[in-house]
Design brief:
With 213 residues, the protein is of the alpha/beta class. The chain has 5 helices and 9 strands. The radius of gyration is 16 Å and the shape is globular. It comes from Streptomyces eurocidicus. This is Radical activating enzyme.
């Protein structure tokens, strides 16, 4: 049985792709981009193991979402399992869209092994490339200007004409009273400064943001 190592999931998110989306942050990344805001997702020995069916059941049961965004961690390090997940979800929920982040360039993924190419074929959108702290920030769904939003299908033709500005970040209050957040930080050092301001007011921010790949 194929199992995926997952750092975190989120039912509803509006800042990591078009519309309202579920998000899966996978666990494990071979890259070490300077300034990564989710270092907790980098080790391959962390996270929680889930079967493809478990995750498909969850995605098919989330109301009001048009698709899923795959982040991490490096999704293409678990490409076979994620491709199988998208196949199972779409067999039950046709038209479910898929977007993924990768610290690897699109061209390298296309030249990669069959598992990586299989996941690429199942995506509507890809955000590619490593996070580079010295490059321009404040862009839609990207941490730095070297990264690209690449349309792999014609699902979202309107994106090319929309403003390329930051979608911001979202905060969630967890059952234990702690805060978690999702999104692409608008500038280097955002997470650290934000955590300090929250701590000064007695709040704890859980380490569960999307990494800037």
């Amino acid at each position: 049985m194929t199992r995926l190592s997952v750092a975190r999931t989120l039912d509803h998110c509006t800042v990591l792709g078009p519309g309202t989306r579920a998000v899966i942050w996978v666990q494990g990344c071979p890259l070490r981009c300077r300034g990564c805001v989710a270092a907790e997702t980098l080790p391959f020995d962390g996270g929680t193991a889930h079967s493809v069916t478990e995750l498909a059941d969850w995605l098919c049961g989330v109301p009001g979402v048009e698709g899923v965004t795959l982040s991490g961690g490096e999704p293409f390090s678990q490409a076979a399992g994620l491709a199988a997940l998208l196949d199972e979800v779409r067999s039950r929920r046709p038209g479910f869209s898929a977007m993924a982040y990768s610290g690897l360039r699109y061209e390298a993924l296309r030249r990669g092994g069959p598992d990586r190419r299989a996941l690429l074929r199942r995506l509507d959108l890809l955000v590619d490339g490593p996070y580079v702290a010295s490059r321009r920030h404040g862009l839609r769904w990207r941490g730095s200007s070297n990264q690209r939003v690449i349309a792999l299908t014609d699902r979202y033709p309107h994106l090319a004409s929309e403003p390329d500005v930051s979608a911001g970040v979202e905060l969630s209050v967890e059952a234990d009273g702690s805060l978690s957040w999702a999104g692409v930080p608008p500038a280097p050092g955002f997470r650290e400064g934000f955590e300090e301001r929250l701590a000064a007011r007695g709040f704890v921010l859980r380490a569960e943001a999307r990494r800037e790949t």
